[in-house]
């Protein structure tokens, strides 16, 4: 006896939900072995971790990244906090080690202008290039096709007659 269709649909939906949950695991990147026993220090470490960029994952915080480098960076943050450093000291340590790029919100200064203005400048340059190409194309007259010679006309007539 065949199974009802709704049973198969439920199975497919369950498989889809499980697959989606597998893709949502980056939020669980901080491993239990990394968690500090002091809840206040752990909260500070998580807050700092959300403000630091994983240097491998581009635009992902170290708190969300499961990369080995992010794991090392999370350990360094927790070690600094355990040693008694302030949040500012931890940020200064990470910037000294990785540069301003490690901050998800880098300071606006001469060294970080490319981080702040790079994307808008690239967008403006691309827009200007498209505008120039469109103007150049609009000003270029379209040449009329050359008329068919006698041989081409005979072949076309033969093709049209079938």
Summarize the structure.
This protein is an all-alpha fold and 162 residues long. The model has no long low-confidence stretch (mean pLDDT 84).
Verbal overview:
The protein has 162 residues and is mainly alpha-helical. It has helices spanning 5-23, 39-51, 68-82, 87-98, 113-139, 150-161. The two termini are 58 Å apart.
Lay out the secondary structure:
Elements: H1 5-23, H2 39-51, H3 68-82, H4 87-98, H5 113-139, H6 150-161
Helix pairs in contact: 2-3, 3-4
Class by SSE composition: mainly alpha
What is the β-strand count?
0
User: What is the rounded Rg?
Assistant: 30 Å
| Percent helix | 55-70%
| Bulk shape | elongated
SSE succession: HHHHHH
Give the CA-CA distance, first to last residue: 58 Å
Overall mean pLDDT stands at 84
What is the beta-strand fraction?
Answer: under 5%
What's the tally of helices? 6
Salient structural properties:
162 residues; mainly alpha
